[in-house]
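Next up, sample data:
>
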Amino acid sequence: MTTKIEKICQLPCWSGLVNPEPLGGGITNHNFTVKDKNGKYVVRFGDDIPVHHVMRFNELAASRAAYEAGVSPEVIYATQGIMVLRFIEGKCFDEAAVRKPANLEKIIPLIRKAHREIPKFLRGPSLVFWVFHVIRDYAATLKDKQSRMLGEIPWLLESAEHLEQAVGQVEMVFGHNDLLAANFIDDGKRLWLFDWDYAGFNSPLFDLGGLVSNSELDTTVEKSVLETYYEKPITDELTMKYEAMKCASLLRETMWSMVSEIYSDIDFDFKKYTEQNLRKYKLELRAFQKSEIQK
């Protein structure tokens, strides 16, 4: 059986012999770095993951369009289950880095640029990422597989239905839909956004809510995040929609982890990740319900 290392070495895109090295950090893909005579690259291994709505044709199209839009590194080569990107010398953000005001000043315009510019370069069919459909599908998958979290599913679905009603009609943009801190890289001159596994048309509120919840931004910062993104004062109606979508982003991350406990072969403590995100969701949901009563 051909190993991943052997497959990488056999790719026709290299100039000279290569010695791939594993790159840690991914919890959806197996990643490697490769140097050849022309530069340094990241090789991403990943098949379709239907239970997570990840389709690699979509990731590839989004990655290419994101490069053309000036948001992401260049795709050098792609074949079935493998994508080669130009390596960016820089520092991946962690949650603390995202929370720094100076970094947020760069992050929000980058997100806005991705949302509005990527569709201008996107080719071929594209997916829609509607978080409430994803949540319902995750629930069905967890029931089918008799998840250890089966007892939680009824109230999670009930809360998701209420959140979907609160979100209501939305503006559509091209979303990244997985704004974890580590998906931002600062090369010292500019910021890059990568990892388009879950890309698809969506409400901008999902990315904004995901950014805030994933990196645990202080609630006092949220109004500034929204006003910076929209470049105008924010109405109470939009604030409520945002708060509902922020809750939904946390629920999606929680249920993503529940499903990953069953299906993923990545060496990662998904059970712990599930528990962490479920606690965060419960806290955020209570805060949203309280704000509804006050309104």
Q: What stands out?
A: The first strand starts at residue 21 and ends at 23.
